[in-house]
Amino acid sequence: MPQFIVIPSFVVEIFRAFWLVLKYIWWVPIPFIIIPAFAKAWLYFIRKRWVGQMKWVMLEIIPPRDIERSPKNMEQAITGLWGAFGTFSIKAEEYLSGMIQEWYSLELVGINGKLHFFVRTLSHFRDLVEAAVYAQYPNSEIHEVEDYMENVPYDFEKHGYDLWATVMKRTGPSDMYPIKTYTSFEDPIDRTFIDPLASMAEVVNRMHEGEQMWLQILIQPADEAIKAGKLKEVVNKMVGRPSVAPKKSLLVEEISAWLAHGRAAGLELITGQPYEVALPKEEEKPVKLPMTINQLLTPGEQEDLTAAEIKASKRWFTSRIQYGYYGRKDVFFKPRGISAVMGALSQIAGTTGFKPWSKEFSVKAYYVFTSWRKRFKKQKLLRMLKERAMYPWLPKAMQYILNSEELATLWHFPTISVVSPAITQVESKRGGAPSDLPIGPE
After folding, report:
1. Of 17, 219, 328, 335, which is the most exposed, with the fewest CB atoms less than 10 Å away?
2. Where are the beta strands (DSSP E) in 101-200?
3. Where are the transmembrane segments (predicted)?
4. Would you tell me the crossing angle of helices 126-136 and 72-81 to the nearest 10 degrees?
5. What DSSP line would sit under 35-73, residue for residue?
6. Domain map (residue ranges) of the chain
Protein backbone atom coordinates (compact mmCIF):
# COMPACT_ATOMS: atom_id res chain seq x y z
CA MET A 1 0.00 0.00 0.00
CA PRO A 2 1.24 3.51 -0.71
CA GLN A 3 2.58 5.43 2.26
CA PHE A 4 0.94 8.79 3.03
CA ILE A 5 2.53 11.60 4.96
CA VAL A 6 0.58 12.34 8.08
CA ILE A 7 0.37 16.06 8.85
CA PRO A 8 0.24 16.82 12.56
CA SER A 9 -3.07 18.16 13.74
CA PHE A 10 -1.59 21.36 15.21
CA VAL A 11 -0.16 22.25 11.78
CA VAL A 12 -3.59 21.74 10.23
CA GLU A 13 -5.09 24.00 12.87
CA ILE A 14 -2.50 26.69 12.17
CA PHE A 15 -3.27 26.69 8.43
CA ARG A 16 -7.01 26.61 9.13
CA ALA A 17 -6.72 29.64 11.43
CA PHE A 18 -4.54 31.42 8.89
CA TRP A 19 -7.06 30.76 6.10
CA LEU A 20 -9.92 31.94 8.29
CA VAL A 21 -8.15 35.21 9.05
CA LEU A 22 -7.12 35.69 5.41
CA LYS A 23 -10.69 35.04 4.25
CA TYR A 24 -12.03 38.07 6.11
CA ILE A 25 -9.16 40.56 6.03
CA TRP A 26 -7.58 39.91 2.60
CA TRP A 27 -8.67 43.38 1.48
CA VAL A 28 -6.90 45.24 4.32
CA PRO A 29 -3.48 45.62 2.57
CA ILE A 30 -5.06 46.85 -0.68
CA PRO A 31 -5.44 50.53 0.37
CA PHE A 32 -1.82 50.56 1.55
CA ILE A 33 -0.79 49.53 -1.98
CA ILE A 34 -3.24 51.57 -4.04
CA ILE A 35 -3.07 54.87 -2.13
CA PRO A 36 0.75 55.34 -2.38
CA ALA A 37 0.67 54.33 -6.06
CA PHE A 38 -2.15 56.79 -6.75
CA ALA A 39 -0.35 59.55 -4.82
CA LYS A 40 2.84 59.06 -6.86
CA ALA A 41 0.89 59.03 -10.13
CA TRP A 42 -1.02 62.16 -9.10
CA LEU A 43 2.15 64.07 -8.17
CA TYR A 44 3.81 63.00 -11.42
CA PHE A 45 0.84 64.24 -13.46
CA ILE A 46 0.36 67.62 -11.77
CA ARG A 47 4.11 68.36 -11.66
CA LYS A 48 4.50 67.59 -15.37
CA ARG A 49 1.53 69.85 -16.04
CA TRP A 50 3.01 72.63 -13.89
CA VAL A 51 6.39 72.44 -15.63
CA GLY A 52 4.67 72.43 -19.02
CA GLN A 53 2.99 75.75 -18.19
CA MET A 54 6.25 77.53 -17.31
CA LYS A 55 7.18 80.51 -19.50
CA TRP A 56 10.90 80.54 -20.26
CA VAL A 57 13.15 83.17 -21.85
CA MET A 58 16.69 82.76 -23.15
CA LEU A 59 19.04 85.62 -22.30
CA GLU A 60 22.43 85.99 -23.98
CA ILE A 61 25.01 87.89 -21.96
CA ILE A 62 27.81 89.57 -23.88
CA PRO A 63 30.62 90.10 -21.36
CA PRO A 64 32.63 93.31 -21.19
CA ARG A 65 36.15 93.46 -22.51
CA ASP A 66 39.19 93.44 -20.21
CA ILE A 67 37.81 91.74 -17.10
CA GLU A 68 40.81 91.93 -14.80
CA ARG A 69 39.35 90.37 -11.67
CA SER A 70 38.72 86.72 -10.82
CA PRO A 71 35.20 85.19 -10.96
CA LYS A 72 34.41 86.69 -7.53
CA ASN A 73 31.97 89.05 -9.25
CA MET A 74 30.21 86.12 -10.90
CA GLU A 75 29.95 84.43 -7.51
CA GLN A 76 28.11 87.48 -6.18
CA ALA A 77 25.81 87.49 -9.22
CA ILE A 78 24.95 83.81 -8.76
CA THR A 79 24.35 84.41 -5.05
CA GLY A 80 21.72 86.95 -6.08
CA LEU A 81 19.91 84.27 -8.10
CA TRP A 82 19.23 82.38 -4.86
CA GLY A 83 16.49 84.96 -4.27
CA ALA A 84 14.15 82.71 -6.27
CA PHE A 85 14.02 80.26 -3.35
CA GLY A 86 10.54 79.62 -1.98
CA THR A 87 8.38 79.06 -5.05
CA PHE A 88 5.56 77.74 -2.88
CA SER A 89 4.88 78.44 0.78
CA ILE A 90 2.30 75.82 1.77
CA LYS A 91 2.02 72.08 1.09
CA ALA A 92 -1.35 72.52 -0.61
CA GLU A 93 0.37 74.35 -3.47
CA GLU A 94 2.71 71.38 -3.90
CA TYR A 95 0.18 68.55 -3.67
CA LEU A 96 -2.80 70.22 -5.36
CA SER A 97 -1.19 72.46 -7.97
CA GLY A 98 2.07 70.57 -8.52
CA MET A 99 4.35 73.50 -7.71
CA ILE A 100 8.04 72.72 -7.40
CA GLN A 101 11.03 74.90 -6.67
CA GLU A 102 11.84 76.86 -9.81
CA TRP A 103 15.32 76.88 -11.35
CA TYR A 104 17.69 78.43 -13.89
CA SER A 105 20.08 77.09 -16.50
CA LEU A 106 23.55 78.61 -16.89
CA GLU A 107 24.85 77.64 -20.32
CA LEU A 108 28.22 77.80 -22.04
CA VAL A 109 27.59 77.16 -25.72
CA GLY A 110 29.86 76.98 -28.74
CA ILE A 111 28.18 77.40 -32.13
CA ASN A 112 30.15 77.51 -35.38
CA GLY A 113 33.36 78.54 -33.63
CA LYS A 114 31.83 81.24 -31.40
CA LEU A 115 31.42 81.03 -27.61
CA HIS A 116 28.14 82.24 -26.09
CA PHE A 117 26.97 82.75 -22.50
CA PHE A 118 23.28 82.06 -21.96
CA VAL A 119 20.97 82.12 -18.96
CA ARG A 120 17.66 80.33 -19.38
CA THR A 121 15.23 81.67 -16.82
CA LEU A 122 11.53 81.96 -16.17
CA SER A 123 10.07 85.18 -17.54
CA HIS A 124 9.14 86.50 -14.08
CA PHE A 125 12.77 86.13 -12.94
CA ARG A 126 14.20 88.06 -15.88
CA ASP A 127 14.56 91.29 -13.91
CA LEU A 128 16.29 89.39 -11.09
CA VAL A 129 18.83 87.90 -13.51
CA GLU A 130 19.53 91.18 -15.28
CA ALA A 131 19.91 93.08 -12.00
CA ALA A 132 22.32 90.45 -10.62
CA VAL A 133 24.51 90.59 -13.76
CA TYR A 134 24.47 94.36 -14.28
CA ALA A 135 25.32 94.95 -10.61
CA GLN A 136 28.61 93.08 -11.05
CA TYR A 137 29.27 93.72 -14.76
CA PRO A 138 27.72 97.12 -15.57
CA ASN A 139 29.34 97.22 -19.03
CA SER A 140 27.90 93.89 -20.17
CA GLU A 141 24.98 93.57 -22.58
CA ILE A 142 21.96 91.30 -22.18
CA HIS A 143 19.63 90.39 -25.04
CA GLU A 144 16.71 88.00 -25.33
CA VAL A 145 17.41 85.47 -28.06
CA GLU A 146 15.85 82.36 -29.53
CA ASP A 147 16.62 79.07 -27.81
CA TYR A 148 19.37 77.44 -29.87
CA MET A 149 17.94 73.99 -29.07
CA GLU A 150 14.84 74.82 -31.11
CA ASN A 151 16.98 74.41 -34.25
CA VAL A 152 17.96 70.83 -33.36
CA PRO A 153 15.36 68.31 -34.63
CA TYR A 154 14.79 64.94 -32.98
CA ASP A 155 15.39 63.22 -36.33
CA PHE A 156 18.80 64.90 -36.71
CA GLU A 157 20.37 61.75 -38.17
CA LYS A 158 18.14 62.06 -41.23
CA HIS A 159 19.58 65.54 -41.78
CA GLY A 160 23.17 64.30 -41.71
CA TYR A 161 24.01 65.19 -38.08
CA ASP A 162 25.30 63.19 -35.14
CA LEU A 163 25.11 63.67 -31.36
CA TRP A 164 27.07 62.64 -28.29
CA ALA A 165 25.68 63.63 -24.91
CA THR A 166 25.88 62.74 -21.24
CA VAL A 167 24.90 63.77 -17.74
CA MET A 168 27.85 64.49 -15.47
CA LYS A 169 27.96 62.35 -12.34
CA ARG A 170 29.57 63.56 -9.14
CA THR A 171 32.56 61.64 -7.83
CA GLY A 172 33.85 61.62 -4.28
CA PRO A 173 32.50 60.61 -0.88
CA SER A 174 29.95 63.42 -0.48
CA ASP A 175 28.74 66.56 -2.21
CA MET A 176 29.74 68.40 0.96
CA TYR A 177 33.31 68.26 -0.36
CA PRO A 178 33.81 71.06 -2.90
CA ILE A 179 35.50 70.95 -6.26
CA LYS A 180 38.57 73.10 -6.89
CA THR A 181 37.24 76.63 -6.99
CA TYR A 182 38.66 79.70 -8.68
CA THR A 183 40.60 80.61 -5.52
CA SER A 184 42.80 77.56 -6.22
CA PHE A 185 43.76 79.01 -9.61
CA GLU A 186 44.95 82.38 -8.32
CA ASP A 187 48.69 82.98 -8.16
CA PRO A 188 49.48 83.79 -4.50
CA ILE A 189 52.28 86.20 -5.47
CA ASP A 190 50.95 88.47 -8.21
CA ARG A 191 47.24 87.49 -7.73
CA THR A 192 46.82 86.66 -11.42
CA PHE A 193 44.02 84.24 -12.29
CA ILE A 194 44.77 81.15 -14.38
CA ASP A 195 41.41 80.44 -15.98
CA PRO A 196 40.62 76.69 -15.98
CA LEU A 197 38.05 77.20 -18.75
CA ALA A 198 40.51 78.85 -21.14
CA SER A 199 41.07 75.52 -22.89
CA MET A 200 37.34 75.24 -23.53
CA ALA A 201 37.37 78.59 -25.33
CA GLU A 202 40.22 77.29 -27.48
CA VAL A 203 38.23 74.13 -28.27
CA VAL A 204 35.31 76.25 -29.48
CA ASN A 205 37.68 78.36 -31.57
CA ARG A 206 38.82 75.21 -33.41
CA MET A 207 35.29 74.06 -34.22
CA HIS A 208 34.08 74.11 -37.81
CA GLU A 209 30.90 75.37 -39.37
CA GLY A 210 28.13 72.95 -38.40
CA GLU A 211 29.62 71.98 -35.01
CA GLN A 212 28.07 72.84 -31.65
CA MET A 213 28.83 72.11 -28.00
CA TRP A 214 26.38 72.68 -25.15
CA LEU A 215 27.38 72.79 -21.49
CA GLN A 216 24.24 73.25 -19.40
CA ILE A 217 24.42 73.81 -15.62
CA LEU A 218 20.97 73.61 -14.08
CA ILE A 219 20.73 75.31 -10.69
CA GLN A 220 17.82 75.22 -8.24
CA PRO A 221 18.02 77.25 -4.99
CA ALA A 222 18.35 74.76 -2.11
CA ASP A 223 16.97 74.92 1.41
CA GLU A 224 19.56 76.30 3.83
CA ALA A 225 18.15 74.18 6.67
CA ILE A 226 19.97 71.04 5.47
CA LYS A 227 23.45 72.56 5.87
CA ALA A 228 24.03 71.82 9.56
CA GLY A 229 23.02 68.16 9.25
CA LYS A 230 25.21 67.50 6.21
CA LEU A 231 28.24 69.18 7.79
CA LYS A 232 27.75 67.17 10.99
CA GLU A 233 27.67 63.94 8.95
CA VAL A 234 31.05 64.80 7.42
CA VAL A 235 32.59 65.53 10.83
CA ASN A 236 31.19 62.32 12.36
CA LYS A 237 32.51 60.24 9.47
CA MET A 238 35.97 61.78 9.70
CA VAL A 239 36.38 61.19 13.45
CA GLY A 240 34.68 57.78 13.38
CA ARG A 241 31.74 58.93 15.46
CA PRO A 242 28.48 57.04 14.74
CA SER A 243 25.77 59.13 13.20
CA VAL A 244 22.77 59.66 15.46
CA ALA A 245 19.56 58.37 13.92
CA PRO A 246 16.73 60.92 13.83
CA LYS A 247 14.27 60.56 16.68
CA LYS A 248 10.89 59.08 15.88
CA SER A 249 7.82 61.15 16.57
CA LEU A 250 5.50 60.19 19.44
CA LEU A 251 2.79 59.10 16.99
CA VAL A 252 5.19 56.78 15.13
CA GLU A 253 6.35 55.26 18.43
CA GLU A 254 2.74 54.64 19.52
CA ILE A 255 1.84 52.98 16.21
CA SER A 256 4.99 50.82 16.33
CA ALA A 257 4.18 49.68 19.87
CA TRP A 258 0.57 48.89 18.90
CA LEU A 259 1.72 46.80 15.92
CA ALA A 260 4.28 44.96 18.07
CA HIS A 261 1.67 44.02 20.70
CA GLY A 262 -0.77 42.96 17.97
CA ARG A 263 1.88 40.72 16.42
CA ALA A 264 2.65 39.20 19.82
CA ALA A 265 -1.03 38.49 20.49
CA GLY A 266 -1.43 36.84 17.08
CA LEU A 267 1.60 34.58 17.57
CA GLU A 268 0.39 33.60 21.04
CA LEU A 269 -3.04 32.73 19.63
CA ILE A 270 -1.59 30.54 16.88
CA THR A 271 1.22 28.81 18.73
CA GLY A 272 -0.23 28.77 22.23
CA GLN A 273 3.11 30.01 23.57
CA PRO A 274 3.55 33.35 25.36
CA TYR A 275 5.42 35.93 23.31
CA GLU A 276 7.23 38.88 24.85
CA VAL A 277 7.36 42.26 23.19
CA ALA A 278 10.89 43.62 22.88
CA LEU A 279 11.06 47.02 24.54
CA PRO A 280 12.94 49.79 22.72
CA LYS A 281 16.46 50.22 23.95
CA GLU A 282 17.47 53.48 25.52
CA GLU A 283 19.76 55.57 23.40
CA GLU A 284 23.36 55.35 24.45
CA LYS A 285 25.02 58.65 25.10
CA PRO A 286 28.00 59.26 22.80
CA VAL A 287 31.35 58.82 24.46
CA LYS A 288 33.22 62.06 24.82
CA LEU A 289 36.42 62.03 22.85
CA PRO A 290 39.52 62.93 24.83
CA MET A 291 41.21 64.57 21.84
CA THR A 292 40.29 67.53 19.69
CA ILE A 293 39.24 67.11 16.07
CA ASN A 294 42.55 68.55 14.84
CA GLN A 295 44.41 65.84 16.78
CA LEU A 296 42.25 63.10 15.26
CA LEU A 297 42.48 64.21 11.63
CA THR A 298 45.37 64.06 9.20
CA PRO A 299 46.47 67.31 7.51
CA GLY A 300 44.60 66.29 4.35
CA GLU A 301 41.42 65.57 6.30
CA GLN A 302 41.73 68.92 8.07
CA GLU A 303 41.88 70.64 4.69
CA ASP A 304 38.80 68.72 3.53
CA LEU A 305 36.91 69.69 6.68
CA THR A 306 37.88 73.35 6.27
CA ALA A 307 36.74 73.23 2.63
CA ALA A 308 33.42 71.67 3.67
CA GLU A 309 32.89 74.41 6.25
CA ILE A 310 33.62 77.09 3.65
CA LYS A 311 31.18 75.42 1.26
CA ALA A 312 28.48 75.42 3.93
CA SER A 313 28.99 79.14 4.54
CA LYS A 314 27.72 80.12 1.07
CA ARG A 315 24.45 79.82 -0.81
CA TRP A 316 23.60 76.33 -2.02
CA PHE A 317 22.00 75.19 -5.25
CA THR A 318 20.77 71.75 -6.22
CA SER A 319 22.56 71.34 -9.53
CA ARG A 320 22.92 69.11 -12.56
CA ILE A 321 25.50 69.35 -15.34
CA GLN A 322 24.72 67.94 -18.76
CA TYR A 323 26.76 68.18 -21.93
CA GLY A 324 26.12 67.64 -25.61
CA TYR A 325 28.32 67.67 -28.72
CA TYR A 326 26.41 68.03 -31.98
CA GLY A 327 27.59 68.41 -35.54
CA ARG A 328 27.42 67.42 -39.17
CA LYS A 329 28.80 63.97 -39.77
CA ASP A 330 31.52 65.26 -42.09
CA VAL A 331 32.99 67.47 -39.30
CA PHE A 332 31.91 65.45 -36.23
CA PHE A 333 35.16 64.71 -34.38
CA LYS A 334 34.93 63.21 -30.89
CA PRO A 335 38.49 64.01 -29.72
CA ARG A 336 37.71 67.69 -30.28
CA GLY A 337 34.13 67.85 -29.05
CA ILE A 338 34.31 65.38 -26.17
CA SER A 339 37.82 64.58 -24.94
CA ALA A 340 39.00 68.19 -24.89
CA VAL A 341 35.95 69.42 -22.98
CA MET A 342 36.09 66.57 -20.46
CA GLY A 343 39.77 67.37 -19.97
CA ALA A 344 38.91 70.99 -19.21
CA LEU A 345 36.37 69.90 -16.60
CA SER A 346 38.89 67.51 -15.03
CA GLN A 347 41.04 70.50 -14.02
CA ILE A 348 38.55 71.46 -11.32
CA ALA A 349 38.45 68.00 -9.72
CA GLY A 350 39.50 67.96 -6.08
CA THR A 351 38.22 65.66 -3.36
CA THR A 352 35.13 65.56 -5.52
CA GLY A 353 34.71 66.08 -9.24
CA PHE A 354 32.60 65.10 -12.24
CA LYS A 355 32.68 62.35 -14.82
CA PRO A 356 30.29 61.22 -17.58
CA TRP A 357 27.54 58.96 -16.30
CA SER A 358 28.22 56.19 -18.78
CA LYS A 359 25.84 53.56 -17.39
CA GLU A 360 22.54 55.38 -17.79
CA PHE A 361 23.12 58.68 -19.54
CA SER A 362 25.64 58.40 -22.34
CA VAL A 363 25.60 57.22 -25.93
CA LYS A 364 26.94 53.71 -25.41
CA ALA A 365 25.44 50.34 -26.22
CA TYR A 366 26.92 46.87 -26.46
CA TYR A 367 25.79 43.36 -27.32
CA VAL A 368 22.34 43.15 -28.94
CA PHE A 369 20.35 45.79 -30.86
CA THR A 370 23.23 48.26 -30.56
CA SER A 371 22.06 50.59 -33.35
CA TRP A 372 18.51 50.82 -32.02
CA ARG A 373 19.65 51.29 -28.42
CA LYS A 374 22.12 54.03 -29.36
CA ARG A 375 19.41 55.84 -31.28
CA PHE A 376 17.03 55.52 -28.32
CA LYS A 377 19.65 56.90 -25.89
CA LYS A 378 20.41 59.83 -28.18
CA GLN A 379 16.71 60.71 -28.35
CA LYS A 380 16.45 60.47 -24.55
CA LEU A 381 19.49 62.68 -23.96
CA LEU A 382 18.41 65.22 -26.58
CA ARG A 383 15.04 65.51 -24.81
CA MET A 384 16.84 66.20 -21.52
CA LEU A 385 18.99 68.86 -23.19
CA LYS A 386 15.91 70.50 -24.68
CA GLU A 387 13.72 70.36 -21.57
CA ARG A 388 16.38 71.23 -18.94
CA ALA A 389 13.98 70.05 -16.25
CA MET A 390 14.72 69.57 -12.53
CA TYR A 391 12.04 67.03 -11.64
CA PRO A 392 11.95 65.87 -7.99
CA TRP A 393 11.79 62.19 -9.00
CA LEU A 394 15.10 62.18 -10.87
CA PRO A 395 17.86 59.98 -9.37
CA LYS A 396 19.76 61.64 -6.53
CA ALA A 397 23.08 60.92 -8.21
CA MET A 398 21.98 63.21 -11.07
CA GLN A 399 21.52 66.16 -8.71
CA TYR A 400 24.18 67.41 -6.34
CA ILE A 401 24.80 70.41 -4.11
CA LEU A 402 27.05 73.15 -5.48
CA ASN A 403 27.51 76.51 -3.82
CA SER A 404 27.86 79.90 -5.48
CA GLU A 405 31.68 79.76 -5.49
CA GLU A 406 31.74 76.37 -7.25
CA LEU A 407 29.19 77.53 -9.82
CA ALA A 408 31.19 80.68 -10.52
CA THR A 409 34.21 78.46 -11.20
CA LEU A 410 32.23 76.41 -13.72
CA TRP A 411 30.45 79.35 -15.39
CA HIS A 412 32.11 82.75 -15.57
CA PHE A 413 33.17 85.33 -18.10
CA PRO A 414 36.74 85.09 -19.41
CA THR A 415 39.31 87.37 -17.86
CA ILE A 416 41.83 89.53 -19.68
CA SER A 417 44.30 86.61 -19.65
CA VAL A 418 42.09 84.57 -22.01
CA VAL A 419 42.66 85.69 -25.58
CA SER A 420 40.50 83.87 -28.12
CA PRO A 421 38.66 85.00 -31.26
CA ALA A 422 35.84 82.66 -30.25
CA ILE A 423 34.74 85.03 -27.47
CA THR A 424 32.29 87.81 -28.33
CA GLN A 425 32.76 90.84 -26.08
CA VAL A 426 31.35 94.33 -25.72
CA GLU A 427 33.58 96.70 -27.70
CA SER A 428 32.86 99.90 -25.78
CA LYS A 429 31.98 100.84 -22.24
CA ARG A 430 28.67 102.33 -21.23
CA GLY A 431 28.69 105.51 -19.19
CA GLY A 432 26.15 107.57 -17.37
CA ALA A 433 24.85 110.89 -18.67
CA PRO A 434 26.62 114.10 -17.58
CA SER A 435 25.22 115.59 -14.39
CA ASP A 436 24.58 118.96 -16.08
CA LEU A 437 22.72 117.51 -19.08
CA PRO A 438 19.41 119.42 -19.53
CA ILE A 439 16.36 117.18 -19.27
CA GLY A 440 13.71 119.59 -20.51
CA PRO A 441 12.98 123.05 -21.86
CA GLU A 442 14.29 125.83 -19.68
Report:
1. 335
2. 104-111, 114-122, 141-145, 161-171
3. 24-45
4. 160
5. HHHHHHHHHHHHHHHHHHT--EEEEEEEPBS---S-THH
6. 54-233+296-410
